[in-house]
Amino acid sequence: MTTDTHATPLLQRLIMLSLLAGLLIMLGTAVWQRIQDPELVQQVAHNPAQHSQEEMSAVGRLMEQVSQNPTDMDTLLSLVNALVKMENWEAAENFAQRAIELDAKDPRPLHLLGIIQHSTDRHADAARSLEAVIALKDDPSVRYSLGVLYIYYLNDKERGLAQLRAGLSLPGISDSLRKHLESELKKGEQAPAENAADGQ
Question: What is the pTM of this model?
């Protein structure tokens, strides 16, 4: 009985030493690989899991701010944007809906809701949300999104072309957006009506 009592701590020490030795070998191998292959360091630096952790921390901070001040629209929208970037669609939609309830006349949460709905393949819902944005504040970039939605996702070429034309008629369009609108309008006009849903 006495021998067993003394043997157990000795056995535990041996196991710990062997584990420590294995860990040191692995560490040494990793260091050697990094010296031999500098690209490995770059890959570790851009590890998506690390980036995701940073995003999670940012979302946590924003959620805390929203809980402390639930009527702060800018923070609420920042939270929705952060959740959209992380593709956490359900949470993003919940907070977008909260923002809409907070101020139904602010087009920004509706625009974000449209993006979320389109990203989750609810294209008809997305179009309704974006139409509501335009009713509150006409915007050429929203017209562009609607044009693409109607032509390629909802098989409604004429409605899509009308949105693109309306977008082009708005004042203050950037050169880049004008080119995108003109390009989509040209493609849409040339595409046969039966092929309008090819992008679905």
Answer: 0.69
